[in-house]
Design goal:
- By secondary structure, the protein is of the alpha+beta class.
- It has a domain of about 130 residues.
- It is built from 6 helices and 4 strands.
- The longest helix is centred in the C-terminal third of the chain and has 36 residues.
- The protein is elongated.
- About 5% of the residues have low confidence.
Length: about 180
């Protein structure tokens, strides 16, 4: 019985190692989880493709005007990226970094109508809704939210999993050797 449990444990460890070391194998072997669908059970998420500009008019908002609209609405932020409108009725997406306190910065996305210049939607991590929850995922899991100490902590946590695997194998070998010496 011990031997079959041992073999199952070793084979599970080998399979786990294969899945971790090869993203292509892991992608085919493991089901994908849509975190957005899970969040939408509790709070509706805004989808960029649903944030369409109004009916097409002769006047169009230029990129400079869209950036100025975002800056007027949120003067505390600084633009770090933008996405021009997609064909048809797409809207401008303006990405800002803004102070959230204690020296940390949040990431805000502002969608601007390309014809009227209206702000269609704002994804703000401080809003407390599903969009805010999703907006916090990258800063938390990359260590960005705490600056260099956070990045170092995320790096060390990442190194801890191989350490757990290696120490598990070492302990298994020690117990196996002890069982062989006893029996």
């Amino acid at each position: 019985m011990f031997r079959s449990l041992l073999l199952r444990g070793v084979s599970a460890g080998v399979v786990s190692l294969a899945l971790v070391s090869s993203p292509a194998v892991a992608q085919e072997a493991l089901p994908t989880i849509d975190i957005g669908a899970a969040v939408e059970l509790f709070s509706q998420l805004a989808k960029a493709e649903d944030l369409r500009s109004g009916p097409e008019t002769q006047s169009r908002v230029s990129l400079d005007e869209a950036l100025a609209i975002a800056a007027r609405r949120f003067p505390d932020g600084r633009v770090y990226a933008f996405v021009p409108p997609q064909p048809q009725n797409g809207s401008y997406a303006v990405y800002q970094l803004f102070p959230i306190g204690w020296g940390f910065e949040g990431r805000r996305t502002i969608y601007v109508d390309r014809f009227r210049g209206d702000v269609l939607h704002v994804n703000d991590p401080l809003s407390g809704d599903g969009d805010g929850f999703i907006a916090w995922q990258w800063p938390l899991h990359s260590g960005y939210v705490l600056g260099w100490p956070g990045r170092i902590a995320v790096f060390l946590f990442g190194l801890s999993w191989p350490l757990v695997f290696v120490t598990g194998v070492i302990r298994w070998l020690q117990k196996r050797r002890a069982a062989q010496n006893a029996g």
